[in-house]
Amino acid sequence: MTQQQLWDVDAARSYDTPGTGMFAPDVLGPTVERLAELAAGKAALEFAIGTGRVGIPLAGRGVPVTGIELSEAMVARLREKADETALPVVIGDMATTVVPGTFGLVYLVFNTISNLQTQDEQVECFRNAARHLGPGGRFVVELWVPELRRLPPGQSATVWRSESGYVGMDVYDVLEQRAVSHHFHFDAEEAHRTGRTDAVRLGLSPHRYIWPSELDLMGRLGGFELESRHADWSGAPFTADSRSHVSVYRLPPS
């Protein structure tokens, strides 16, 4: 399945969940606050801007935002909320597409760099970020830490969330450094009452996972130095037990 097929009209229609999940104030608020701080008054470019979850509120903070997005369906959804004047978007992939202008900040949130399926493409993503930045510019990547320590011997899958109406599971291929996220959505009360399982909706998303040290090497290949790494957007310390990280890379000032 290609990324265009994955992020189709149905995915775009169901992506926004105002006030909950990724759109919950305690999730989105710190993200926008930190990015506005890192932009430091300069323009920002969002790779894989999607439906504008982050880009629209960041622009609302006075940061000029431009987006790159592969899925026309996701951009159509964004256009229901912000027009081209308020938030320009170029259709293309984040590893090679170039937009006019020079930016102080490029950012890539919510594990999206792992949507690129090869190491070469992921390295090119860093190089493309550098291509758009001026001296001292920053590239911010939010990414999950592969949970291979949770894999029992001989097993290839971990359940990373289980709650009423939803189960999230990752199936790993440790040889190829890939993972496929399985998202099971269902009406828990209906399933419990009737025993029916045919109402379960399954969504799949393939990833090439990246260890933090490998990500740092990609940064160096792109001309960046690691400026900071935290466990979340609020600045919690990154430790061996952290499940994700927000890493800020910076180009030399001259």
From TrEMBL:
GO biological process: methylation
InterPro entries reported in the protein's UniProt record: Methyltransf_25, SAM-dependent_MTases_sf
Top-level enzyme category: transferase
GO terms for MF: methyltransferase activity
Keywords: Methyltransferase, Transferase
Domain Methyltransferase: 45-137
Domain of life of the organism encoding this protein: Bacteria
Family annotation (CDD domains): AdoMet_MTases
Keyword Lyase: no
EC number: 2.1.-.-
Gene3D superfamilies in alphabetical order: Vaccinia Virus protein VP39
Keyword Repressor among record annotations: no
Name of this protein: Class I SAM-dependent methyltransferase
Gene source species: Streptomyces hintoniae
